[in-house]
Design a protein that fits this description.
Oligomer: heterotrimer
Largest sheet of chain B: 6 strands, mixed
Number of strands of chain B: 14
Structural class of chain A: mainly alpha
CATH topology of the largest domain in chain B: D-Maltodextrin-Binding Protein, domain 2
Number of domains of chain B: 2
CATH architecture of the largest domain in chain B: 3-Layer(aba) Sandwich
Number of helices of chain B: 14
Shape of chain B: globular
Radius of gyration of chain A: 30 Å
CATH superfamily of the largest domain in chain B: Periplasmic binding protein-like II
Helix content of chain A: 55-70%
Largest sheet of chain A: none
Number of domains of chain A: 3
CATH class of the largest domain in chain A: Mainly Alpha
Distance between the termini of chain B: 37 Å
Order of helices and strands of chain A: HHHHHHHHHHHHEHHHHH
């Protein structure tokens, strides 16, 4: 029997057959190409069309870019060197880079000041943007605005110092009184700050800025990409608190406050930023006391801050609305009053939801700072359209300058939007 | 001047107290700088050079006023203004004077409440056309596309000119001179119109200026001059007489080079002496010290020197004196006597 | 049994204004009202004082004065003797024109790029991602300038088309692409209403006929639907519908005497005459706004499509629907509900961003009323206020209209 059994099985494999390689067109590059580029006729057509498009783009721009001239004194000289060939004249960037970045009036020996301020900005912003960093770094963030102000505008250090002391005094007052009653603490803090500022201001001697270690720079002399950055950073950071206040005001059950907030937000969102800038440049000075003039930079900061605050308020309102009703009720049932409930329960959650939206508004706002060129401020676009293109040497150089501006904005905005996407993934606590 | 830190902080950011009320002369003296409104960039008249220094014909006038009032020709804060912002900037006190090739017109003087303190350049509107177009007169421009700066009197003159000659045109509005230049060179318009001086300045920056002609018609009167706010007569007088001093200095042969000799020379023409403050009390009457005019002339030279240095025939802009010559040379410049 | 009693009536103390919730909101509102009134009084007082000091006043009578300047792009009759108010209306119409055009093309670009970005073709989806990122992250002002320079630098001057021996012929004998704009044949009516058939009434008549046709086809389709429900057979309405659209239109155009005005290269030595000129600033602004906003819309479309549960696609596939029909019948109708609200705000953005026309010399409201009129009359406050009023009204109208539409397509939930 056993013999028969063994014989009836002709062959028994004593091991597995080694896997044969997949067919040639199911592996590697070929498979990838087939799956991703030529899966069917339409797809193949699309791929072909895209390749043609890419080819056309590169054919027109690559020689222009590669032939670029980096050293010349004027456009005419550039053309001479190029000798009829297609090529860019990047020399305008190498010759005027300081004007593009800092404006044409900022003192050349003080370029390190905005540079340092930018560097410190990264340090100051880090703990706000990345939650993993030690919270103690926030202390530096609090001090940063005063340091940056001093670095960029220069003058006597007493001014930012007194301003800082005023804020510290206000914070202390709020700590002391705010425990019992938020309103009392809040108003006392404002009064304390005003008192410190006034007293301190009276103590600063006249002309203290004249021989300061950092020479004073009037804000009219700021310009170039630095101006865009400053407007962007200042206005966004000022408009977040204002936006929170507006969003809360819009949700308030006090009809007067609610309607004031609604009208403000809808008004600002209904008009283009450019009309608000016109207001800043041609109208606002009529609304200040006759004996004072407020400088254009400050007026523009006021208008842009109002503009972005309205948008941020809407984003935060979305965040507030997205919170389940139970959170509000839970806060009430714990016996928390309104400021406590907002501070401890509602806002932390609502803000977390709103952060990507706020970042979007910030990017949009940063791009919109180019509009100040329309009201004769020399930001990056203003520098290009004004002094540089008007100069005898460089009139006619458009692509290089606008391309450079586009590149600067792209790098910054793309960086921020990548951060926002990272943050969104990070904050996504729901499971999908 | 009392100020809080809040204001103090903003002062550096810009909230500066003290304008209009005390009178502009006192304000300027208290501030230590003159805020002078200029164009955002017209080579030869006012434009920042590669080092960020403002240069030009209008700029020199600002420097002369600063020198007369403050004794320092560099104590000027130049405020670039557009066609839109210039009048508000002046009316609101952001600037003390406007020297931005602004045409003296009835409505600006009377309705907008400004005071033109004289004429520093007699201009007229002309047309710039490529030679290849084969046009020899502006009246042949029927159907042409014309680049014109918006918000200027040129825009209105243009409409009037074509209307009165009963021919049609297409306006291409541009914001700045640089933009107009680019549009014109790209062929987006057939002719470019602006003040003849501006045309010359623009043509000078072209690669081949010889390929373009300025048509013979001058279609308007464009008296350009500095202006100040209505009602502040002391300040108006300072600006007016600084300009007159520059013009008179040329007439009297006082230049920045021979200024020292002239003022030290007891044999000089009595009017020169009055002008330079070695005789009489003209400066005192104006609320300034005696050698105010000498300082103004020392800043950038007399009218002729300023003209020659910025826009004269030796410069790329190459403007002839023409109407802007002294009355003794057949021009229109005629400074009232210093007496 | 417990009886309800009022809380003990405490005497009113001043501190209750802050601490008692019954009074607190009142207190705050009174404080707010006083603060608002004070600041309005302060600003208004400053305004009055400043105006008095400058010897100015607020008056809108300048709107009736002749404007004195010409506008190259206009939808209604206008010349330099027309009033400032008419110039403002020309500007308003131009703003609306570019906004409507840009909204349409931006939606097209956006949907196109958004759908293609989800394509399984690697190259295409990457290209679309690059398009979206590049255009989203660079200010629209820079895009407007770049595209304007492309238009003015890359296209030939009209001179190339002019004269007997022109360098270029009209494309198909009908179109001319120049750096001053594109010339296309323009329709006009030889025996319509108005002088030489030039009245806008003619177009209203044509539009009215189209609207009537629309309702007629709806009526036909409704009948077909009823018939289908009764008998199960749907009568073929294609031919009938086609006739309803075509016959009245052709008839009315024939009666009005439609004919075409072609661009003529021989009539003038500077420009082409005749036809319709779409100016270069309009093209630049239109294209820049649509391609910039298109990138944002693409992201909205992508998010909308991705928001649809994968089960929907699978369910549709299980029903045996083809790829294209899955998109059209199942995914897009649902995705639209997600897409429309952000789309509304993009349309609002286009309308507001059209104010950047000022950078390329397009005669919109910001350029006419807020630009030239403001400069020429010096009436800054009046002009800026009127301009803001217009934008505010336009924004509110658009958002109201779109919200009504949004409500009509919203998922009807129980």
């Amino acid at each position: 029997m056993s013999d028969q059994t063994t014989n009836s099985i002709a062959f028994v494999a004593d091991g597995t057959i080694p896997p044969s390689p997949p067919p040639a067109n199911e592996t590697g590059v070929v498979k990838w190409l087939r799956d991703n580029l030529f899966s069917n006729f339409t797809n193949g057509l699309l791929t072909f069309a895209s390749l043609v498009l890419i080819y056309l783009l590169l054919k027109n721009t690559l020689p222009w870019f590669l032939n670029g001239i980096w050293q010349a004194d004027s456009l005419a000289q550039c053309r001479e060197i190029l000798n009829g060939n297609v090529g860019a004249c990047f020399a305008v960037l190498t010759e005027r880079w300081h004007q593009l970045l800092y404006g044409f009036k900022y003192p050349g020996d003080a370029y390190w000041r905005p540079n340092l301020a930018l560097l410190l900005l990264l340090v100051a912003a880090a703990p706000v943007l990345f939650f993993d960093l030690p919270r103690k770094l926030l202390l530096f963030t609090v001090v940063y605005p005063f340091i940056a102000f001093w670095l960029i505008w220069g003058g006597t250090i007493l001014v930012p110092l007194v301003a800082f002391l005023g804020c510290v005094a206000a914070a202390v007052a709020f700590q002391k009184l705010g425990k019992n009653s938020f309103a009392a603490g809040f108003f006392t803090a404002i009064i304390v700050a005003l008192v410190v500022w006034n007293v301190g201001g009276a103590l600063i001697p006249e002309g203290a800025s004249d021989n300061a270690w950092l020479s004073a720079v009037p804000s009219r002399d700021l310009g170039g990409f630095m101006l865009n950055m400053m407007l962007g950073v200042t206005c966004v950071s000022l408009s977040v608190p204002l936006g929170i206040a507006l969003a809360l005001g819009r949700q308030s059950d006090m009809p007067l406050i609610k309607w004031v907030c609604v009208i403000f937000i809808e008004f600002i969102r209904g008009v283009p930023l450019i009309t608000l800038l016109f207001v800043a440049s041609v109208m606002l000075s009529y609304f200040f006391p006759p004996e004072s003039t407020v400088d254009l930079f400050l007026r523009v900061v006021i208008m842009i801050t109002m503009f972005s605050a309205a948008y941020i308020a809407e984003v935060i309102r979305g965040g507030l609305a997205a919170l389940p009703r139970g959170q509000y009720e839970a806060a009430d049932s714990l016996g928390l009053d309104y400021p406590q409930a907002m501070r401890l329960i509602i806002l932390p959650q609502a803000l977390k939801i709103s952060i990507p939206g706020i970042v979007n508004v910030a990017v949009g706002l940063f791009k919109d700072t180019t509009l100040v060129s329309v009201i004769s401020m020399f930001d990056l676009v203003g520098m290009i359209r004004g002094p540089i293109l008007a100069s005898t040497e460089w009139n006619g150089v458009y692509w290089e300058l606008l391309g450079f501006a586009a590149l600067l904005f792209f790098v910054v905005c793309y960086g921020i939007s990548q951060y926002s996407q990272w943050l969104e993934r990070r904050l996504a606590t729901d499971h999908r | 001047m009392k100020k809080s830190v809040f204001l103090g902080a903003a002062t550096i950011a810009g909230l500066a107290a003290g304008a209009a009320v005390a009178g502009t002369v006192d304000d300027v003296k208290a501030r230590g700088t003159l805020n002078c409104g200029v164009t955002t960039g017209l080579v030869g008249f006012a434009a920042p050079d590669a080092n960020g220094e403002w240069k030009g014909f209008d700029v020199s006038l600002c420097r002369a006023v600063a020198a007369a009032v403050l004794g320092d020709a560099n104590a000027v804060e130049f405020v670039p203004t557009t066609g839109k912002t210039r009048f508000t900037a002046l009316a609101s006190g952001e600037i003390d004077m406007l020297a931005r090739n602004t045409t003296w017109t009835f409505s600006r003087d009377v309705d907008l409440k400004f005071e033109f303190t004289g004429i520093n350049y007699y201009d007229g509107q002309g047309f710039l056309a490529p030679k290849a177009l084969g046009v020899s007169s502006a009246k042949e421009l029927d159907g042409a596309t014309v680049c014109v700066q918006t918000g200027t009197t040129t825009e209105l003159n243009l409409a009037d000119f074509f209307r009165s000659n009963n021919i049609s045109y297409e306006p291409v509005p541009v914001e700045t001179n640089a933009e107009g230049q680019q549009q014109y060179l790209a062929g987006a318009c057939d002719v470019y119109t602006t003040d003849a001086s501006g045309l010359a300045a623009t043509r000078a920056t072209f690669e081949s200026p010889g390929d373009h002609v300025i048509l013979p018609e001058i279609i308007s009167k464009e008296p350009l001059g500095p202006l100040v706010r209505h009602g502040d007569h002391e300040w108006g007088d300072v600006v007016r007489w600084t300009l007159n001093a520059l013009i008179a200095a040329e007439e009297l042969g006082v230049t920045s080079a021979n200024l020292e000799d002239m003022s030290g020379n007891p044999e000089a023409n009595p009017e020169v002496k009055r002008l330079l403050g070695t005789e009489g009390t003209l400066g005192e009457m104006l609320g300034l010290d005696a050698d105010w005019a000498a300082r103004a002339i020392a800043a950038d030279g007399n009218y002729g020197e300023i003209f020659a240095k910025n826009i004269g025939e030796e410069t790329p802009i190459g403007l002839a004196r023409g109407l802007n010559g002294q009355w003794t040379d057949g021009g229109l410049l005629y400074a009232p006597p210093f007496r | 049994m417990s009886t309800m009693t009022d809380p003990p009536k405490a005497d009113f103390r001043l501190s209750m204004l802050i601490n008692d919730t019954r009074y607190r909101s009142l207190t705050f509102q009174v404080i707010a009202a006083v603060a608002i009134a004070l600041s309005i009084w302060y600003l208004g007082n400053n305004l009055i004082q400043n105006l008095r000091a400058a010897g100015l006043n607020i008056s809108y009578s300048f709107l009736g004065d002749p404007a004195g300047y010409d506008i190259n792009q206009r939808l209604i009759e206008y010349d330099s003797q027309s009033s400032h108010a008419r110039a403002a209306i020309v500007g308003i119409l131009n703003t609306l024109l570019v906004a409507v055009l840009a909204c349409i093309t931006a939606t097209f670009f956006g949907v196109f790029a958004g759908v293609l970005r989800l394509s399984n073709n690697w190259l295409v989806s990457k290209l679309m991602a690059i398009y979206v990122e590049i255009f989203r992250n660079i200010p629209v002002l820079i895009w407007i300038l770049i595209i304007f320079f492309i238009v003015t630098a890359a296209m030939p001057a009209p001179r190339a088309y002019l004269g007997e021996q022109a360098e270029r012929d009209l494309v198909l004998g009908l179109f001319a692409f120049t750096n001053r704009g594109i010339y296309v044949p323009s329709p006009f009516f030889t025996n319509g209403f108005g002088a030489e058939g030039g009245s806008a009434v003619n177009w209203l008549v044509v539009i009215a006929v189209l609207i009537l046709s629309h309702f007629a086809t709806r009526f036909v389709n409704k009948n077909a639907q009823i018939k289908q429900e009764q008998t199960g057979n749907r009568p073929n309405t294609l031919l009938l519908n086609g006739l309803i659209w075509l016959v009245p239109l052709v008839a009315v155009l024939f009666i009005l005497g439609l004919s075409w005005d072609f661009p003529d290269p021989l009539a003038n030595r500077f420009n082409l005459r005749g036809g319709l000129q779409i100016g270069a600033p309009l093209i630049a602004l239109w294209f820049a706004l649509s391609i910039y906003t298109g990138a944002f819309i693409a992201e909205n479309v992508r998010a909308g499509i991705q928001a649809i549960n994968k089960g929907q696609t699978e369910a549709a596939a299980a029903l045996g629907l083809r790829q294209g029909r899955i998109m059209n019948l199942v995914i897009l109708p649902q995705a639209l509900r997600v897409i429309i609200p952000p789309l509304i705000s993009q349309y609002l953005n286009i309308t507001k961003n059209s104010s950047l026309a000022i950078a390329v010399g397009y005669a919109d409201i910001t350029a006419t009323l807020g630009g030239i009129t403001l400069n020429q009359t010096g009436r800054a406050i009046e002009c800026v206020l009127l301009m803001m009023l217009f934008y505010l009204t336009a924004s509110l109208l658009i958002s109201t209209g779109m919200n009504i539409y949004n409500a009509s397509v919203k998922l009807k939930e129980r």
